Amino acid sequence: MTLDPWLLERLVCPVTRQPLRHDEAAQELVSEAAGLAYPIRDGIPVMLVEEAREI
Q: Which HAMAP family does this UniProt record tie to the protein (predicted)?
């Protein structure tokens, strides 16, 4: 599922406030700065640190 480009431009990592990279294959938003990947479930980004996995 493709994430809306408008939304992707506005989302930032809640930890670092840096932009995120969309990993479409893994359905995650990746914060290189924080070393975290936030899941996208049913097309909705889950921007909770508790739900992110370390990369």
A: UPF0434
The CATH code of the domain that includes 30 is 2.20.25.10
Structure tokens at 15: 């930890």
Half-sphere exposure of residue 13: CA atoms within 13 angstroms, side-chain side: 21
Summarised one tens digit per residue, pLDDT across range 7-43 is 999 999 999 999 999 999 999 999 999 999 999 999 8
Range(s) of the domain holding residue 12: 5-54
Tokens representing 49 are: 């640190």
How many domains does the chain divide into? 1
pTM of structure: 0.91
How far, in Å, CA of 44 to CA of 4, rounded? 10
